[in-house]
């Protein structure tokens, strides 16, 4: 109830003095978050699979440390959690940002692709939460931020694997919010639109209102400082997507079919 009252009053939640763990920090939105977070928090622990990509980032800041961790490998996450526990004893904020994106060609249906994306995006989040939750419970102000996607609001062509994985992230995080509220741990969901990253650079379709990773990082931190339950951006794009997602099927379906035809890859 106190957090609800604070939110209604527009209370500010500064990152000053916080210990933060950020996954998926080697590129894209994760890498762009590092300087914004490091400028405000007490200490930032960053992790990703490739330590060689993390070290040059961490070395730029006195209050940033890097550790290798693959979110699909619970043992590697446990090692990071153990290190944090030994040094700090807790974390105030977990930003579960690690993820991947692959598109499905239903003409050559690849079940392994779907499982691979689900394993990284959903199982990876579950593994990360399992490792970090004891550290969040040890804090006096635990806060979990799960990076999802605005794709969950509206089905898009070839996004079966990615969209399903992020829909699972949404439900999992929202249920966690309910169950962890009694422990004083808050949960936010981040739903970006199109952001310029190494992942989206591989896309071969129009990406309206695409923003930079740096703009995305600023939007995420601004939302975190208010503990917004839904941090979505850019606002113009996400509002349109939400509106389309709220349409009845009789209106939504013709629009989706038209969009699907316009985005369909030509067959050889």
Automatic annotation (TrEMBL):
<dbReference type="InterPro" id="IPR036291">
    <property type="entry name" value="NAD(P)-bd_dom_sf"/>
</dbReference>
<comment type="similarity">
    <text>Belongs to the short-chain dehydrogenases/reductases (SDR) family.</text>
</comment>
<dbReference type="GO" id="GO:0016020">
    <property type="term" value="C:membrane"/>
</dbReference>
<dbReference type="GO" id="GO:0016491">
    <property type="term" value="F:oxidoreductase activity"/>
</dbReference>
<keyword id="KW-0560">Oxidoreductase</keyword>
<dbReference type="Pfam" id="PF00106">
    <property type="entry name" value="adh_short"/>
</dbReference>
<dbReference type="InterPro" id="IPR020904">
    <property type="entry name" value="Sc_DH/Rdtase_CS"/>
</dbReference>
<protein>
    <submittedName>
        <fullName>SDR family NAD(P)-dependent oxidoreductase</fullName>
    </submittedName>
</protein>
<dbReference type="InterPro" id="IPR002347">
    <property type="entry name" value="SDR_fam"/>
</dbReference>
């Amino acid at each position: 109830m106190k957090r609800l009252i604070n939110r209604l009053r527009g209370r500010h939640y500064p990152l000053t003095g916080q210990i933060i763990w950020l996954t998926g920090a080697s590129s894209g939105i994760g890498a762009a978050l590092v300087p914004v977070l490091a400028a405000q928090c007490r200490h930032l622990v960053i992790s990703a699979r490739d330590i060689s990509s993390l070290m040059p980032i961490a070395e730029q800041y006195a209050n940033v440390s890097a550790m290798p961790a693959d979110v699909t490998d619970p043992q590697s996450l446990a090692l990071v959690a153990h290190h944090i526990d030994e040094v700090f004893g807790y974390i105030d904020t977990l930003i579960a940002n690690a993820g991947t994106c692959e598109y499905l060609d239903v003409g050559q249906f690849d079940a392994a692709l779907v499982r691979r994306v689900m394993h990284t995006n959903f199982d990876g989040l579950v593994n990360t939460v399992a490792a970090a939750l004891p550290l969040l419970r040890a804090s006096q102000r635990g806060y979990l931020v799960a990076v999802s996607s605005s794709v969950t609001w509206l089905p898009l062509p070839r996004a079966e694997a990615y969209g399903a994985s992020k829909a699972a992230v949404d439900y999992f995080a929202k249920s966690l919010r309910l169950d962890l509220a009694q422990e004083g741990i808050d949960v936010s969901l981040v739903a970006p639109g199109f952001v310029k990253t190494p992942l989206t650079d591989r896309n071969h379709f129009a990406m309206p209102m695409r923003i930079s990773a740096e703009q995305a990082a600023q939007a995420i931190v601004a939302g975190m400082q208010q503990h917004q339950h839904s941090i979505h951006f850019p606002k113009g794009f996400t509002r349109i997507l939400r509106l389309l997602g709220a349409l009845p099927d009789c209106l939504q379906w013709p629009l989706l079919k038209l969009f699907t035809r316009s985005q369909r890859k030509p067959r050889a």
